[in-house]
Specification:
heterotrimer; A mainly alpha; B mainly alpha; C mainly alpha; A: mainly alpha; 2 domains; C: mainly alpha; Cytochrome C Oxidase, Chain A; globular
Chain lengths: 122, 308, 511
């Protein structure tokens, strides 16, 4: 595979941590910021629920925010943005299975109120 | 020929497997075994034996690492640059996390399936029946008045994720003291999470989250601090699908937190004797991945079960 | 090379070496295989004539002969699929894959030992139901609501569930191990496209296992929750049964490919060696494997055509099921094309490999009919279906046995006796055909009954079952020859040397 040669020099021997750290900068501050964002988003989530929006808006807010939080945790706490591409690709493997599971198992209850047909409109 | 390889034999896998088998046998025979299908309490002994054996196996397994300055697999042994860009153990941990992703996505999609099949009780023109049995009365509405526990738990897990990362950073800076402290903080946050969860479960099981004055008759809207008639006697595993999905999903998540705490015990002990330094901190990173993953699951469980 | 000598019991119990673990897998799967074979023989004996009395089942634990028959069917299916064929592939994978890619050992040797022991005790716990008052009698599919406490009050389902959980621990450990080993520990000059075919198929197998076994784990946790802790996941008989069907077959259908893929890899190793030609179209086989792996997780609804599922799902999955025959047809054609113009020799290993291809083609072609929902309505739950999947799985077993003949010299330093081997082959080959072909004609007989012959029409079924039972005995006798051959050749077989077949992959000639 092409990638095998591409990444040869950059990543060999570098497992996962700060190439991103500039000299003199404390990573603690960076992680603190991430944590602050996570707390902020959690509060937004809870506030949004108490506002009694319509179903669609609630869903978009909840799962939009969940996705953003997962991105924060994955990227920074699990260092995915500093990791070699192998990690990201590995982490992407179950996405396909997840989609199949949620669509075909989660949303196809016979006689369901919300199933694929009602959601997609056919 | 095998003796030439670096790895010596160890009975740990055997002990661990026998113990797991014993634990299952004990659990099954104690809860459902016997002629009367009522369970034979004597088998709890086998169950305890199994648990003890599992811990013994785990400790035997870890014993090999205990005295080492290094951790197995820190050196990248693969020959192929693309794949060997992270250590074998870290790659293995990522693959393990993939399997975990599938476990939770199965649980959540089962939940979604059941949830989508029933109308929510608030919907217009829906007849929910006398007990609201034909409607989905989400766990979220029962918790709503006491959501603060869930929120605190969320913060606890997020904060513990932060402390794990900081512990890793401290270990990299050869600061064992700080690493130990951060790990201990993580341990306490995880424990706090479990305690709050247990308290919340207990209160929900016994129906303490809603007052007696607040019974709802058929067709009425359920106010936020009231509860559907079907939960009059509490909200537990066997009450309804709402209870089952809620407790099993959050319970399995809680089990993951618990396993994480056991692993943390090892990490703290090892960090305390200055076992992690600039060169060898892989294990903290691997544990961190697991712990963050548990956090990620919570990020989905929280809106699924506590908010909506 | 004689690995069994000079080893104390202690050595075996604590070993983490991949060869030792592979050998232990080999012996354990043979044990489970014979258990499964004996169960199938008992099933065939019960069915050999109409209105067969059940007196001989009376010694069975429990008071219900029918339940005992059901538990035999259940354990036969579960043991054969989950504890025999698939782990036997892993026996070879443990032994051969590190050698093929030039690795010193597996990436995580102790995890490897763990996956063996959990597998072994998983099988024992699942089978221990026979001791603890009746094994699971619900079919290896564990269909809800049959598994609810109401219909299956016994402990068998719990024990089988616990055994499967242990198996899942084992599988998780070995998937991690194999993926890391194959990707990391290849020797320097081996590009990923240079990997031998068996290693390739093992890679796809473990990737597939990685994604499907956790689904079974979650489903089992729900089931065990229902049975031990009074949760209500599957209490609603309509919705619960379909949810279980979805979750189980989301696992169960790819599991069929988990069983099949290593066998294809073995065939792709064996056929070129004995045709004395390179494998035809290796890249196309690999592309087909990729396509087949992806498709295999989106076809599971064909197991549920007659349940009350969304018709849309039925149409989609009917099409994908028909599509999935294409990549595997490509692989078969590549294997057959390998033979073209080759100098083919016919030692037992090659006979088994070619027999496996032939049987698999029959199994595959009969499966295409079942993929059509309209035909499936009629053939579902009849012996036609039984014959179909026994042809495919029979082919898989023949292929794995071919691998036994092929790699036995590597593992034990001696070649299995050829005369006994040929006897074994012809017995197994014709036995399989004789057992399963008559069942194709029983398109009107339900599969899960143990006594038949209530009327004129049902009496006719007896003729077919008679021949099927004869066939089962032929297979059984052939396997006894096999067992004798395995034991005898260990001490009396011809010395193999380091490369008896002139194989070109690296395990030959390595230490």
């Amino acid at each position: 595979m092409k990638d095998e040669q591409d990444t040869e020099n950059e990543h060999h021997g570098d497992h996962s941590f700060p190439g991103w750290l500039h000299a003199g900068e404390s990573p603690i501050q960076g992680f603190m910021k991430v944590f602050a964002w996570l707390v902020f988003f959690t509060i937004v989530e809870v506030m949004a629920i108490l506002q009694e929006f319509s179903f669609e808006v609630t869903m978009v807010i909840l799962f939009g925010i969940a996705a953003v939080k997962v991105w924060f945790i994955g990227s920074f706490f699990m260092h995915m943005i500093w990791d070699p591409p192998l990690v990201n690709r590995t982490a992407a493997v179950p996405v396909f299975f997840l989609i199949v599971l949620f669509l075909a198992v989660g949303l196809t209850s016979p006689g369901a109120v919300d199933d694929l047909r009602t959601i997609c409109g056919f | 020929m095998s003796e030439e390889h670096g790895h010596h034999g160890t009975p740990a896998p055997l002990v661990f497997s026998v113990a797991v088998a014993l634990m299952f046998l004990g659990l099954i025979m104690a809860t459902a075994g016997g002629e009367d299908k009522e369970g034979d309490t004597g088998y709890w002994f086998v169950f305890i034996l199994g648990i003890a054996g599992m811990i013994t196996g785990f400790m035997m397994w870890m014993q090999d690492y205990w005295d080492q300055d290094s951790e197995e697999g820190v050196e990248i042994v693969g020959y192929h640059p693309f794949w060997a860009s992270i250590t074998t153990r870290k790659f293995g941990m990522w693959i393990f996390l993939l399997t975990e992703v599938m476990v939770f996505s199965t649980l959540l999609s089962a939940y979604l399936r059941y949830r989508a099949a029933l109308p929510d009780y608030g919907a217009i023109g829906v007849d929910c029946g006398l007990q609201f049995e034909a409607c989905w009365v989400p766990a979220a509405d029962i918790i709503r008045s006491h959501l603060i526990f869930g929120v605190i738990n969320t913060f606890a897990l997020l904060l513990s994720s932060l402390t794990v990362v900081l512990a890793l950073y401290a270990a990299r800076n050869n600061n064992s003291k700080a690493a130990t402290r951060y790990l201990i903080a993580t341990f306490f946050l995880g424990t706090l999470f479990l305690i709050l969860k247990a308290y919340e479960w207990w209160e929900m099981k016994n129906g303490h989250f809603w007052g007696d004055h607040c019974s709802v008759t058929a067709g009425q809207d359920i106010g936020h601090h009231c509860v559907a008639p079907k939960y009059e006697h509490g909200f537990w595993l066997d009450t309804s699908l709402e209870g089952t999905t809620f407790y099993i999903t959050t319970g399995i998540h809680g089990a993951h937190v618990f396993v994480g705490l056991l692993a943390l015990g090892y990490l703290i002990a090892k960090a305390n004797k200055e076992g992690y330094n600039e060169k060898y901190h892989d294990t903290i990173e691997l544990f961190g991945l697991y712990w963050h993953y548990v956090d990620v699951v919570w990020v989905f469980v929280f809106p699924f079960f506590y908010l909506y | 090379m004689n690995i069994l000598e000079n080893k104390t019991l202690n050595r075996w119990l604590t070993t983490t070496n991949h060869k030792d673990v592979g050998l232990m897998y080999f012996f354990a799967t043979l044990l489970f295989g014979f258990i499964g074979l004996l169960l199938s023989l008992l099933i065939r004996i019960q069915l050999y004539q109409p209105n067969n009395g059940t007196a001989w089942l009376d010694w069975a634990p429990g008071d219900d002969a029918g339940a005992f028959y059901n538990s035999m069917v259940t354990m036969h299916g579960a043991v054969m699929v989950l504890f025999f064929v698939s782990p036997l592939s892993f026996a070879f994978a443990n032994y051969v894959v590190p050698l093929q890619i030039g690795a010193k050992d597996m990436a995580f040797p102790r995890l490897n030992a763990l996956s063996f022991w959990t597998f072994l005790f998983g099988g024992l716990v699942a089978a221990s139901g026979f001791v603890f008052g009746g094994a699971a009698d619900v079919g290896w599919t564990f269909y809800s609501p049959l598994t609810s406490l109401e219909y299956s009050p016994g402990n068998g389902v719990n024990l089988a569930g616990a055994g499967l959980v242990l198996l899942i621990i084992s599988v998780t450990a070995s998937t991690i191990n194999f993926i890391v080993t194959i990707l990391y520990h290849r020797q320097k000059n081996m590009d990923i496209w240079d990997m031998p075919m068996f290693t390739w198929t093992m890679l796809f197998t473990v990737i597939l296992m990685l994604t499907i076994f956790p689904i079974l784990l979650a489903a089992l946790l729900m089931l065990v929750g229902d049975r031990l802790f009074e949760t209500v996941f599957f209490i609603d008989e309509n919705r619960g049964s379909i949810l279980w069907g979805h979750l189980f077959w989301f696992f169960g259908h790819p599991e069929v490919y988990v069983v099949l893929l290593p066998e294809l890899g073995m065939l792709a190793e064996i056929v070129p060696v004995f045709a004395r030609k390179p494998l035809y179209g290796k890249r196309y086989i690999i592309y087909s494997l990729i396509v087949g792996t992806v498709l295999s997780v989106i076809v599971w609804v064909h197991h549920m055509f007659i349940t009350g599922i969304d018709p849309l799902l039925r149409e989609v999955m009917s099409v994908t099921t028909e599509l999935i025959s294409i990549p595997f047809a490509v692989i078969m054609i590549c294997l057959i094309a390998t033979l073209y113009d080759g100098k083919i020799t016919f030692p037992t290993a090659n006979l088994f490999a070619l027999g496996a291809i032939g049987i698999f083609v029959i199994g595959g072609v009969t499966g295409v009919f079942l993929s059509s929902a309209a035909i499936d309505y009629h053939l579902r739950g009849t012996y036609y279906l039984v014959a179909h999947f026994h042809y495919t799985l029979g082919a898989v077993t023949l292929g794995v046995v071919a691998a036994v003949y092929y790699w036995y010299p590597l593992m034990f330093g001696r070649i299995l006796d050829e005369r006994l081997g040929k006897l074994h082959f012809w017995g197994s080959f014709f036995g399989t055909i004789l057992t399963m072909t008559p069942l194709f004609y029983l398109t009107d007989m339900p599969r899960r009954i143990y006594v038949y012959g209530a009327n004129e029409h049902e009496l006719v079924w007896g003729d077919y079952h008679f021949w099927a039972t004869i066939g089962a005995f032929v297979v059984f006798v052939a396997q006894l020859i096999f067992l004798y051959n395995l034991i005898r050749s260990y001490s009396h077989g011809r010395e193999a040397g380091s490369n008896p077949w002139n194989g070109s992959t690296q395990e030959w000639g390595s230490e």
